[in-house]
Amino acid sequence: CCSGSHLLVLIERSLPSLLGAEEVRLSNQTIWSLTVCNLPSQANHTEHHEGRHYSIPLEEVKAVFPHGLPYRFQQQVKTFNEACLMVRKPALELFTYLKNSNFAHPAVRYVIYGERGTGKTMTLCHVVHYCARQGWLVLHIPDAHLWVKNCKELMQSSYKKERLDQPLQASSWLKNFKTSNEHFLKEIKTQQKYVWGKRESTEQGRPLGEVVEQGLARVRSASDAVGVVLKEIKQQCHLGSFRVLVAVDGVNALWGRTTLKKEDKSPVSPEELTLVYNLRKMMMNNWNGGAIVTTLSQTGSLFKPSSAYLPHELLGKEGFDALDPFVPVLVPNYSQREFESCYHYYLHRKWLQHEQARTEAGKEELRFLSGSNPQQLERLAGPL
Amino acid sequence: MAAAMRRLLRAGGRRGAALVVAAGGTRSQTLRLIYTTTAAWKKNVAASGPEKYTEAFIKKQIEEFNLGKRHLANMMGEDPETFTQEDIDRAIAYLFPSGLFDKRARPMMKHPTEIFPEQRKIQWGEDGRPFHFLFYTGKQSYYSLMHDTYEKLLNVQKHQDQMAAQDLPPQKEKKNLVGSRWLTKTELEEMLLEKLSDDDYSRFIQLLQKLVTSPCGNIEENYIKKFSREISAQLQKVVIEPLKHDDRGVAFSTGEGERKTSRATVIVYDNGTGKITVNGIDVLHYFPVLQDREQLLFPFQFLDRVGKHDMVCTVSGGGRSSQAGAIRLASAKALRSFVTEKEVEFMRQAGLLTVDPRVKERKKPGQEGARRKFTWKKR
Fold first, then answer.
1. How confident is the model over A183-197, as pLDDT tens digits?
2. A376 to B284: CB separation less than 8 angstroms, yes or no
3. How far apart are alpha carbons A231 and A282 in whole angstroms?
4. What's phi and psi for A321, nearest 5 deg?
5. Is B300 an interface residue toward A (CB < 8 Å)?
6. What phi-psi label fits residue B138: left (phi over 0), alpha (psi between -120 and 50 degrees) or beta?
7. Beta strands B310-316 and B262-269, pairing class
8. Which of A124, B298, B310, B322 makes a 20 to 30 Å CA pair with A223?
9. Rounded distance between C-alpha atoms, residue A249 and residue A270, angstroms
10. Nearest to A368 among B285, B304, B306 (CB)
11. Structure ipTM
12. Position A40 pLDDT exceeds 60
């Protein structure tokens, strides 16, 4: 296996020259094996593997990503019967940062940003999978925008009078959290007693799983359960027994505006929501032993123009100050090589059925029309 | 009786003459119109019989015009001696501003010969005897013209025979007919001041052709020049500009295009990657709709140069579809410089280089839109 990968690496080094020369007619099979082939999903992806796809076994997908993947990607997984992610530079960058980070220092915040459809969420999912493989505790919030809009039930919080609870969202998140981090829930113990109501309470020293069960059973207190989970994890991660990855998609929702209204039609600001309040506390860098990786998203954002994609535009002043020392990671459109790789992947999976799509001219046309934007390419390749 | 005779003769001069019956007795000379043709309704000013404006009247009008011109020059504070017709027009437009759309309806002051159309003067004298010997043919000017032209032709033939007899080579200096055309039928009618038929006109032109094409026809050049006009606006062959090079040594060329109300200017650079910028914004952001991007793709795809050029465009006006069409035309025009003539011809036949003439049609009164009528109600 080692020599095989060596060979692959050697062939790859000569790849740029091969790809540049137009006279060399590589058969589809060789291109497939050289550029796109499914790597075994090892955790040690390096720059050599840039541009290539690797597949995740479907059981792992269900375990690690109960709620994280974008909808279109989920459909693709169902169609192709496999989940293949492309290894791209931003993800590799994040891996190096995470590998070299010192966990005694406060948690570093990484903000993945980029134009619409360039692959920020997919990068985040890649990082989540990587960390899950390494055995970290993953707190994955798939889309923070879902918590600040379209909420059918808003209840007044029993814990604090002026805050508002969102039982539905909280309970769905708890369910997904349970599926993704089963074994951690047994290990982590609560450090204080929590009283949920007149008759329910969780003693000190009980496993965290009980808190989660409580939240799922008693939907009214689900938001408080979420808050408890976050607090416990934050308190205990610096002890060093496990690493924590807080992965939030659409973090700009936490500091924007909401579309929710109270009963007296006055607008709700994000701090008044329990979930958002607790999550904000998690995003502060006053704890160590883990990392915070977030994504900005314009697609679900409220009251933001569609051309905004930079951190300070989408986060606003408040959010920017709150997240202030962060490491920005830009996700660009596909490079030449990545585009070729994606194109050959679709070709190999027999997704491009149109005869003209299989020609060189068709490839150029796709490249032009999509502008090397991953989302556009995916939408274009759909009907073909 | 003489007067009635005259009237009949006048009526007979028109084509499709009206049938007139002199009814009644000798005392009352009432004329009753029985039948007219449509040709009689059309007003031929030039051939409408004896002039309505007498010569003296026209002369007086000319005097008044000149006097008025001097007055106007004085009013405007300019020199009466050097007051041209353009100055008159400007002065009138200044003194009598009008908002009417039709230029012919606005106040104007022109020389009487332009206002009062030329008409045929009375063709016979006081004794009733016509002046011209061909008067009774009905089309005296036409037949006299044919007569003169045939005389010239005979002249030329005589000259030719003389040259042949003297064994001199016939002069081969042909007048260049390329940049000139013969008079049109209307122009000839205006010249002769009488109506012609198509047949007459074609016979005359045939005679002129014969005159010109015969050797030694140059003798009568002066005569022929009266009947030919220059065609000034020749068909211009579209000039394709050569490639320019900017400071980095990259070849580029510009093009302009329009569609509906959009105007676009485009600079196409060589050695590119297919990156396109519109008004400083990336093409994916400016044209989020696939249809517009397909329009931009078309010229490049046609020439198989999809990823090879970069493009920087500026576009204004119109909506998203018309802006896309304008950029398409502009880029096709710019690409002509990069490409062989054959491919330019292919592009032209594909319709990439033609300006789309469709614009929004005017809404008409009495209708709801350009074509849509109001809902028809039975009652």
1. 888 888 888 888 877
2. yes
3. 8
4. -65, -40
5. yes
6. left
7. antiparallel
8. A124
9. 16
10. B306
11. 0.78
12. no
A373: chain B residues, CB-CB within 8 Å: 284
Comparing B134 with B26, the larger pLDDT belongs to B134
- Distance to chain A for B365, nearest Cα, Å: 42
**Rounded to an integer, what distance in angstroms lies between the CA atom of residue A237 and that of residue A244?**
7
Judging contacts by C-beta atoms under 8 Å, the chain B residues touching residue A371 are 282-284, 293
Residue B285 sits at the chain A interface (C-beta within 8 Å): yes
CA pair distance B304, B289, nearest whole angstrom: 23
CA end-to-end span of chain B: 61
Give the per-residue pLDDT at B330: 94
Residues B119, B46: contact at Cβ < 8 Å?
yes
Q: Give the span between the Cα atoms of A86 and A345, in whole angstroms.
A: 10
Measured between CB atoms, does B297 come within 8 Å of chain A?
Answer: yes
> By CA distance, what is B291's nearest residue in A?
A369
Chain B residues in contact with A365 (beta carbon < 8 A): 297, 301, 306
- Residue B313's pLDDT is 93
Distance CA B290, CA B320 (A): 11
**Structural contact between residues A166 and A144, judged by C-beta atoms closer than 8 angstroms:** no
pLDDT digits (tens, 9 = 90+) for A315-356: 888 888 888 888 888 888 888 888 888 888 888 888 888 888
Q: Which of A364, A366, A375 to mutate to test binding with chain B, by most B CBs within 10 Å of its CB? A: A364
| Contact (CB, 8 A) for A278 and A230 | yes
Chain B positions touching A339 (Cβ under 8 A) are: none
Question: Do strands A164-165 and A53-56 pair parallel, antiparallel, or not at all (unpaired)?
Answer: unpaired
Flag whether residue B290 sits within 8 Å of chain A, measured between CB atoms: yes
Q: Cβ–Cβ of A368/B297 closer than 8 Å?
A: yes
- Which of A367, A371, A380 has its CB closest to that of B283? A371
Residue with tokens 């880029």: B331
State whether residue A344 is helix, strand or coil.
helix
pLDDT at B104 over 70: yes
Phi, psi of A112, rounded to the nearest 5 degrees: -90, 120
Predicted confidence at residue B49, as pLDDT, reads: 54
Percentage of residues in chain A having pLDDT higher than 70: 88
State the Cα–Cα distance between residues B116 and B110, nearest whole angstrom.
10
pLDDT tens readout for residues B186-221: 989 888 888 889 999 999 999 988 888 887 767 778
pLDDT-derived band at B292, boundaries 50, 70, 90: very high
pLDDT classification of B225: cutoffs 50, 70, 90: confident
Residue A141 to residue A344: CA distance in whole angstroms: 32
Question: Which residues does A contribute to its contact with B (CB < 8 Å)?
Answer: 115, 307, 361, 364-365, 367-369, 371, 373, 376, 380
- Chain B: closest CA distance from residue A364 (Å): 6
Nearest residue in chain A measured CA to CA from B289: A369
Q: How far apart are CA A306 and CA A299, in angstroms?
A: 8
- The pLDDT score that the predictor gives to residue A55 is 79
* Shortest alpha-carbon distance between residue B246 and chain A (Å): 25
The lowest-confidence range among A92-106, B14-28, B167-181, B210-224 is B14-28
Q: Do A367 and B300 touch (CB under 8 A)?
A: no
Distance CA A302, CA A250 (A): 11
In this structure, what token pair is assigned to residue A17?
Answer: 């020259």
Bridge partners (DSSP) listed for residue A194: A202
The top-scoring range by mean pLDDT among A149-153, B31-35, B163-167, B292-296 is B292-296
Put simply, the answer to whether B274 touches A380 (Cβ < 8 Å) is no
Neighboring chain B residues of A380 at a CB cutoff of 8 Å = 290
**Looking at A70-79, A276-285, B30-39, which range is the least confident one?**
B30-39
The answer to whether residues B292 and B283 touch, using CB atoms and an 8 Å cutoff, is no
Nearest residue to B299 via CA among B339, B260, B263: B339
B374: which 2 tokens? 């109001």
